[in-house]
């Protein structure tokens, strides 16, 4: 007997140690199992053993000093991190220097210079990609495949010996590469050089007025190299991206600080900011394969390379701003700001935008000092607007230049339609709050109510290809967020040697799409994803809702068709999930006993939906326990119907009577689980709630009498740290609900999910 190597699924005869079969390793001439039968059993080493224990080390040193007129500080930090995947490593080096010097009376110069270098090796593949090992482990796999045997097969000769042969001659893998071959041959490496710093002059004109001039720069240089080795299932290739970005800011600040009267204080600011940024990038890759294996250079391309993708953007924003803060007797405060920006990325006529803010607060506890039970109390109210410009190159249409046709140069219309009528994006927010503490700060809370409204959001939206474009830049619409943020603290016990402090945080946010641009048809598709679902901005709905096919219901029960499978809606535009949580909460406790401190934090998320592509495909390929086991008759589900197998799906028939149709689930093609029979996409939408032990730390501070004997240190703290230690509760099966694919504020989708990583660390802190 020979398994179907080309089938990347886990259906077939049940495991039997007495059944000997020719497995994938029997086709490998270098394997000890070559041309041998081996027992048909589940793997001894599951995909969990593919992951390695990551080790992170961090060392830093800083030195500071100075004299009568100047000070300086310099430091160095190195961080080494070996990842949980084989052949993954990140190395970071950071150098920093800062200094200040009094050139003359009231004239001070200061400067800082920083440089960091990050080298990455074997960055993790994500999503639905063969370079993400979890695409195989969670979606397309055979449960007889032993990870240790795959590791041995690769390291014997460095070849792509796969479990997923295209035929019994082991010609080549058909879908899946050996995961170790992917990690050691098809890896990505990258380097980032980051330079940032500033230089400034400050002149104190008099006791209440000073002038500051500052120039700052922040720049990066990135090199990313990607490779697909000869022997992979994909076409061998090499690609490199060079990217340079720089931002320069010129600031002039006039600061005022003077009491108007004995009771009224005043602080003011007048300023100007000029921001200039520039980005250049070029990406090129080989074409048609590699001539020489493992020689990664553009010149090693089988066919002439296509025209590189080149990008050059510039942005200039000129800003002028002012602020004023008034205080009355240290209990009434009023802040007001105004800013005017002019940006080159918006069309002339719409490229100037103003945004103000005003805030008031009343520290009523300063009027109730005789009330000893009240330690602190303040009410606050503010309104603010924030403006934003458009991405560069989104106003005027441009041409793209593809590879020439022979000797004939070609130009084509860009597939993104730009917009000469774009307006600035604005976010308007109002916030009210109450802060209070009682009984010498043994008990207290902070309560905030807020409402924000973002209008004229600038985004490229998907349009019909019949227009000649795939996307169009528009002011897409208006989104509202409103909610409550609350925190409560208490100190139940506080003695000379022992204290216990508890903190509770609670957040509720509700968002809603209030309007969309004309022509949107009530919906903007934000992302179209594998599995047949989309993320959307739907009019009148929360932002980011999941659309796909849903169950058809009768009296709240899912309808089963005559074939015994669930019926799905004809439309894939049904809203089947909202990724936004009902609330977020955190509970932290800190205990101090003499020189020992224990801290732990529990995080809670309630609600929010998540579509799992891992379950959609993995259930269909028989990867998960639900697809096996016993049925309601006490027989193995995967038996044929004639042998008492199969299942009856809960629900009702189309006439409303209970479903009693038994269906065969002995093969992947006939499975009622997952994708094979095209069930409603809602079948793999899950509640993303969780309760996690997020963090625990235990710190011991060496006694002061010991420290006095250890010069020049003023203190030494020794800590044991743990993070993401325990998922106490969750509803998403076999995965961490927090591990989802996301882009910006798009949530609610999981594919090739990585396992949760528990971090345990040891730290020694020296105080000078």
User: How far apart lie the N and C ends?
Assistant: 71 Å
| Poorly predicted regions | none
Q: Biggest β-sheet: count, sense, barrel?
A: 21 strands, antiparallel
**Structure summary, number of beta strands:** 43
Subcellular location: Cell outer membrane
Protein name: TonB-dependent receptor domain-containing protein
Organism: Pedobacter vanadiisoli
Main location: membrane
How does this model look, in words?
It comes from Pedobacter vanadiisoli. Keywords: Cell outer membrane, Membrane, Receptor. This protein has 768 residues and is mostly beta strands. Helices cover 5% and strands 52% of the residues. The chain has a 21-stranded antiparallel sheet, with no helix packed on it. A four-stranded antiparallel sheet has the order 26-27-28-31, with no helix packed on it. Strands 38-34-42-41 form a four-stranded mixed sheet. The termini are far apart. The model has no long low-confidence stretch (mean pLDDT 93).
Summarize the structure in short:
Helices cover 5% and strands 52% of the residues. By secondary structure, it is mainly beta. Strand 22 (458-462) and strand 23 form a beta hairpin.
Helices and strands, with pairings:
Layout lengths: L15 E7 L14 E4 L14 E12 L3 E13 L6 E16 L2 E15 L11 H6 L8 H11 L21 H7 L2 E19 L2 E20 L8 E21 L6 E22 L1 E4 L10 E3 L5 E20 L3 E12 L8 E11 L11 E15 L10 E2 L11 E2 L2 E2 L7 E14 L4 E13 L2 E5 L8 E5 L1 E18 L3 E19 L6 E7 L3 E6 L6 E4 L4 E2 L2 E4 L13 E4 L5 E11 L2 E11 L2 E4 H8 L26 E2 L3 E2 L8 E2 L21 E3 L2 E12 L2 H4 L7 E16 L10 E3 L2 E5 L8 E9 L1
Parallel strand pairs: 19-23, 30-36, 34-42
Antiparallel strand pairs: 1-2, 3-4, 4-5, 5-6, 6-7, 7-8, 8-9, 9-10, 10-13, 11-12, 13-14, 14-15, 15-16, 16-20, 17-18, 20-21, 21-24, 22-23, 24-25, 25-32, 26-27, 27-28, 28-31, 29-30, 32-33, 33-39, 34-38, 35-37, 39-40, 40-43, 41-42
């Amino acid at each position: 007997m020979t398994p179907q190597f080309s089938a990347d699924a886990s259906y077939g005869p049940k495991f039997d140690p007495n059944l000997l079969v020719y497995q994938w390793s029997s086709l490998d001439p270098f394997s000890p199992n070559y041309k041998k039968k081996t027992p048909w059993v589940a793997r001894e080493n599951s995909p969990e053993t593919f992951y390695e224990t990551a080790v992170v080390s961090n060392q830093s040193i800083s030195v500071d000093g100075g004299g009568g007129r100047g000070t300086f500080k310099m430091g160095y930090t190195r961080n080494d991190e070996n990842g949980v995947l084989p052949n993954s490593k990140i190395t970071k080096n950071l150098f920093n220097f800062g200094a200040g010097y009094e050139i003359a009376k009231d004239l001070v110069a200061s400067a800082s210079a920083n440089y960091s270098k990050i080298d990455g090796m074997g960055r993790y593949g994500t999503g639905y990609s063969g370079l993400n090992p979890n695409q195989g482990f969670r979606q397309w796999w055979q449960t007889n495949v032993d990870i240790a045997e795959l590791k041995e097969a690769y390291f014997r000769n460095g070849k792509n010996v796969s479990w997923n042969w295209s035929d019994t001659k082991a010609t080549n893998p058909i879908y899946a590469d050996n995961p170790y071959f992917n990690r050691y041959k098809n890896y990505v490496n990258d380097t980032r050089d980051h330079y940032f710093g500033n230089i400034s002059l400050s002149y104190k004109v008099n006791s209440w007025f000073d002038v500051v001039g500052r120039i700052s720069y922040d720049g990066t240089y990135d090199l990313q190299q990607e490779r697909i080795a000869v022997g992979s299932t994909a076409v061998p290739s090499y690609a490199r991206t060079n990217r340079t970005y720089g931002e320069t800011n010129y600031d002039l600040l006039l600061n005022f600080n003077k009491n108007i009267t004995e009771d009224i204080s005043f602080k003011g600011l007048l300023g100007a900011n000029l921001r200039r940024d520039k980005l250049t990038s070029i990406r090129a890759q080989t074409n048609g394969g590699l001539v020489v294996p493992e020689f990664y250079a553009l010149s090693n391309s089988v066919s002439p390379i296509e025209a590189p993708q080149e990008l050059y953007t510039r942005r200039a924003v000129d800003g002028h701003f002012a602020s004023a803060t008034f205080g009355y007797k240290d209990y009434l405060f009023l802040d007001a700001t105004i800013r005017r920006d002019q940006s080159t990325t918006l069309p002339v006529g719409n490229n100037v935008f103003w945004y103000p803010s005003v805030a008031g607060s009343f520290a009523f506890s300063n009027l109730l000092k005789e009330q000893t039970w009240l330690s602190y109390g303040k009410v606050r109210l503010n309104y603010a607007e924030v403006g934003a410009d458009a991405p560069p190159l989104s106003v005027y249409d441009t041409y793209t230049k593809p590879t020439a046709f022979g000797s004939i140069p070609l130009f084509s219309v860009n597939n993104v339609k730009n917009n000469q009528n774009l307006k600035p994006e604005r976010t308007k927010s109002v916030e009210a709050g109450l802060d209070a503490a009682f009984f010498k700060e043994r008990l207290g809370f902070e309560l905030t109510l807020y409402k924000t409204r973002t209008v004229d959001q600038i985004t490229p939206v998907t349009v019909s290809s019949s227009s000649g474009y795939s996307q169009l830049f528009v002011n897409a619409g208006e989104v509202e967020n409103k909610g409550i943020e609350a925190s409560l603290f208490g100190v139940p016990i506080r003695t000379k040697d022992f204290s216990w402090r508890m903190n509770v945080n609670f957040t509720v946010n509700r968002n809603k799409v209030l309007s969309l641009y004309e022509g949107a048809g009530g919906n903007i598709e934000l992302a179209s994803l594998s599995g047949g679902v989309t993320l959307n901005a739907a009019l009148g709905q929360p932002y980011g809702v999941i659309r796909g096919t849903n169950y058809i219901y009768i009296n709240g029960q899912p309808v089963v068709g005559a074939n015994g499978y669930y019926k799905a809606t004809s439309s894939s535009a049904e809203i089947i999930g909202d990724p936004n949580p009902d609330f977020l909460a955190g509970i932290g406790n800190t205990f101090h006993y003499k020189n020992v401190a224990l801290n732990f934090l529990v995080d809670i998320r309630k609600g929010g939906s998540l579509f799992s592509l891992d379950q959609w495909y993995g259930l269909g390929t028989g990867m998960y326990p639900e697809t096996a086991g016993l049925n309601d008759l006490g027989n193995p589900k995967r038996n044929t119907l004639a042998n008492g197998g199969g299942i009856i799906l809960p629900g009702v028939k189309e006439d409303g009577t209970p479903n009693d149709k038994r269906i065969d689930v002995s093969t992947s093609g006939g499975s009622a689980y997952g994708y094979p029979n095209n069930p409603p996409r809602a079948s793999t939408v899950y509640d993303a709630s969780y309760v996690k032990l997020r963090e625990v730390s235990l710190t011991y501070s060496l006694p002061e009498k010991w420290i006095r004997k250890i010069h020049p240190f003023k203190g030494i703290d020794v800590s044991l740290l743990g993070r993401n230690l325990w998922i106490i509760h969750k509803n998403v099966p076999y995965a961490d609900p927090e591990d989802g694919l996301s882009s910006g504020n798009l949530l609610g989708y999981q594919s090739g999910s990585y396992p949760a990583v528990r971090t345990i660390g040891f730290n020694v802190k020296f105080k000078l």
